[in-house]
Amino acid sequence: MRTYRGAWSTAGLVAGFAGLATSYFVAMAMTIRDSPVVAVAEQTIRLTPGPVAEKAISVLGHHDKTVLVAVILVLVGLLFAWAGQLAARAWWAPLFVFVPLAVLGGAAASAQRGASGLDVLPVAVGFVTWLICLSLLTEPLRRAALADPVAASPDPVDPVGRRPTVAVRSRRSFLLRGAAIAAAAAALGAAGRVVGRGRRHVEETRRLLRLPGVNSPVVPTRARVGLDGISPWMTPADEFYKIDTTIVAPAIEPVDWQLRIHGMVDRELVVSYQDLLDRRLTEGWVTLNCVSNPVGGPLIGNAWWSGVRLADLLREAGVHPDADALKQTSDDGWTCGTPLSALTDNQHAMLALAMNGEPLPIDHGFPVRTIVPGLYGYVSACKWVVDIEVTQFSQFSAYWTERGWGERGPVKLSSRIDVPASGGELSAGTARIGGVAWAQHVGIEAVEVALDGGDWQPAEISHPPTDDTWVQWAASVDVAPGDHVVRVRATDKHGLVQTGVEREVLPDGATGWHTVDFSASAS
Ligand SMILES: Nc1nc2c(c(=O)[nH]1)N[C@H]1C(S)=C(S)[C@@H](COP(=O)(O)O)O[C@H]1N2
Ligand SMILES: [Mo]
């Protein structure tokens, strides 16, 4: 085939730009960050010596960044075409192009301000896309070359019969795959643009929002035991665990947000963001748990939430006496079923607008989510909530209950050891150990620890002002040099002692005692 050289270069180019498209899309969807290409452009600007940069700006004006991105795209385009040529020699040869490019993109993305490990994910996705697309595209070329070593033949049709030759069929499949990949990449690029623009805009709105009536959190002194290394009593929003089923978190402008409360009520309510702000806000500390948290696991956090009490809204709507559930629906279609009883008798069950004194982060439900103390998130803490139907459990099923999880989801009494960490080291002698314990809505009465299978001994606990949060605990234990094991258990204010029976998270939350192995070194 005469067009062979061209075909291999085209394969490299199409695969290359497909990788840029997927990485761009992931970057837009995942964060408000720039794509890896723009990150490279920014680092280039940052590393350019001042005088050179000034010269560039004076020549190019304010288009300097656009021009730079265009230049980078042309350069990587040439490299992609070259990678296609290399693929003709050996399947692994294009790695000489792709690996350095990925390293460059990853380095630029990680060098951005406030970057985390997650920022290299778009680059990784792009890299995998390169490999997959290039092998999809070069496979027909390779097939043709093998079947027909004289494939350079200018006449692709078998001169004897009129049957298409292997070369013709391979070329057809090459063209089809190339077109499909190019079209998918273009579509993904366009989608990334829409997603990125929407999210950026909402992020900006959120940043400029001032919420009257929202107070900054002040951690109550008695809420802490003052032991280094245990989880901070208030979990900062950016360290708060994040669980949801979305690929792209909904980006909702507060002015576009509306919540409809309907179903078994006397009066249907439709409330806007401003309506909520115009009400008296309730505020409180509430610890949120995920039902998927294994014993001792990290899927729990404690925050200061500000919002509108659900009980008030429900009273206004006039709930029928035979209703027992709320079916909550998120903007992304996720649903959960919440027992009504948990909402009407708790002043901190709310439609939350703020977390730790700031408007909710987008990933935690901006502009409005539900918070209900004492229930696992999957039955209550609907993020991006837009619809609440007052109903009966017998009338519906929700996202997770359809998948085998329990219907009601009360949080189970539990406790966790933070210090020492599993496999950690302490110095021998009298050691301070500690962690957290929770029995939301009921409260923690006591925490005990047992060293090396010995007797339970009491720990001190902190005394937060509410029973809706975790407490911190600390204890002093005498440890000889060597290996040890420590367990913890809590007792709630109803006298219930945390069970040692080990259960899996499915269907309604794990049980058992958190147990940590550590070693003590002679000091
Ligand atoms: N819209 C929506 N809301 C949701 C979920 C979800 O998948 N979609 N997951 C729930 C689950 S399982 C938990 S544990 C909490 C987690 O809230 P966070 O991500 O703010 O920590 O959100 C709940 N709200
Ligand atoms: Mo969860």
Automatic annotation (TrEMBL):
Membrane-crossing segments per the record: 6-27, 67-85, 91-111, 118-137, 174-196
Every Oxidoreductase molybdopterin-binding domain range: 250-395
Pfam family, one: Oxidored_molyb
InterPro entries reported for this sequence: Ig_E-set, OxRdtase_Mopterin-bd_dom, OxRdtase_Mopterin-bd_sf
Keyword Iron: no
Lineage of source species: Bacteria, Bacillati, Actinomycetota, Actinomycetes, Propionibacteriales
Keywords: Membrane, Transmembrane, Transmembrane helix
Protein name per Swiss-Prot or TrEMBL: Molybdopterin-dependent oxidoreductase
Superkingdom of origin organism: Bacteria
